[in-house]
Specification:
Layout lengths: L4 H17 L12 E9 L2 H11 L3 E9 L1 H7 L5 E9 L2 E10 L17 E7 L2 H10 L3 E2 L5 E2 L11 E6 L5 E6 L17 E11 L2 H11 L3 E9 L1 H7 L5 E8 L5 E9 L18 E6 L3 H10 L3 E2 L5 E2 L9 E6 L5 E6 L1
Parallel strand pairs: 1-4, 5-9, 10-13, 14-18
Antiparallel strand pairs: 1-14, 2-3, 3-4, 5-10, 6-8, 7-8, 8-9, 11-12, 12-13, 15-17, 16-17, 17-18
């Protein structure tokens, strides 16, 4: 009897977990130095740029069109031609990517926040009420029922306000407001800006312990905080009845963090589509920076990680800012691009 695709993918990642669980640091120097950007596949670049710039006040930094063997081998998509627009908010960046050819598939209409393809960027705001009013005026699609203030009994998250909504392609986005005793000092410097920058990208994982073997033990990111969140506020934020989450914040030496979201309940989130590709709209790619792409690739290869790229790809023209890069999947299937500038 042939296993279903989702079970094959799960079995593959379980095997990766076993390999990583037996792996102990190959070298002590950091594999990654920071998170450079989150790459988001979009269907209509002009519409996406308008939304992120006009509504969320990102600024366009660059706009290039690329094609050729290098990008085919990097992204694992044959015949690729893509337009890449880098946008900046505060000190942080996103890369919007439109696949002019070949076109991919839309985000599943029944996606939920506990499905493992879930990923969002968390944008810090100076005033939650004002930000929510602005989003309502622009008729964004709600992913939460409304802004939620996490309760004070939760020591590590109490007082944080958050709201999930969707961009024009259906990608979830979070706005987040920190009380004075939480968050980086840079989010409390005052000023007249409403949207301040990106604190982290959040991803749903099946097992925090398996993900830590990848992000902490292989990539040398550090655990910066932990929390267990539940209750009506968390349920309405995630729009998942009975949501109970183990949340683990990871950081490198610079850039936004990566937040691991493990749903302790309910455990019915679906695994990553086994046939997901970079031109599908469900695709996000977290871009990490290293000083040694070849060394990082070898370390991951020795640990049995699953590569999307055919190897370490040289970028001769540097149109998109890197000299060498490769894409690999974490234990749940999230795409991680590791670049050498």
């Amino acid at each position: 009897m042939r296993a279903k695709p989702g079970l094959r993918r799960a079995a593959t990642f379980c095997l990766l977990w076993v390999v990583l669980a037996t792996f102990q640091g190959l070298g002590q120097s950091p594999t990654v130095m920071g998170l450079d950007a989150v790459s988001i596949t979009v269907s209509d670049m002009d519409r996406a740029v308008d939304f992120y710039s006009r509504v969320l006040t990102f600024q366009k930094i660059s706009d290039v069109e690329v094609a050729g063997d290098d990008y085919e081998h990097l992204e694992g998509v044959f015949g690729v031609r893509m337009r890449v627009v880098r946008m900046q908010l505060g000190e942080e960046f996103i890369d919007l990517v439109e696949y002019i050819a070949p076109k991919g598939r839309p985000i599943p209409v029944d996606s939920r926040s506990n499905d493992r393809w879930f990923q969002h960027i968390a944008i810090i705001v100076s005033d939650m009420d004002q930000a929510y009013r602005l989003l309502r005026q622009n008729k964004v699609e709600h992913a939460s029922s409304g802004p939620q203030r996490l309760p004070d009994w939760n020591k590590n998250a109490g007082g944080i306000s958050a709201f999930y909504f969707k961009d024009p392609d259906g990608h979830p986005v979070e706005i987040l407001h920190f009380p004075p005793d939480k968050g980086s000092p840079k989010w409390h410097q005052g000023g007249d800006k409403l949207f301040l920058g990106i604190d982290h990208t959040a991803i749903v994982v099946w097992s925090t312990d398996a993900s830590l073997k990848f992000y902490r033990d292989l990539l040398n990111m550090r655990v910066a905080g932990e929390s267990e969140n539940y209750g009506t506020e968390q349920e309405h934020l995630n729009n998942v009845f009975g949501a109970r989450l183990r949340i683990t914040a990871l950081r490198a030496s610079k850039g936004p963090g990566i937040e691991l979201l493990e749903y302790l309940a309910p455990r019915d989130g679906r695994p990553f589509p086994v046939d997901e590709h970079a031109n599908d709209l469900v695709h996000r790619q977290t871009v990490l920076v290293t000083a040694d792409a070849a060394g990082a690739a070898q370390k991951l290869r020795d640990a049995g990680a699953i590569f999307v790229s055919s190897g370490v790809i040289l970028n001769q023209n540097r149109e998109t800012g890197f000299t060498k890069a490769f894409v690999v999947r974490d234990p749940d299937g999230h795409a991680i691009e590791i670049e050498e500038k």
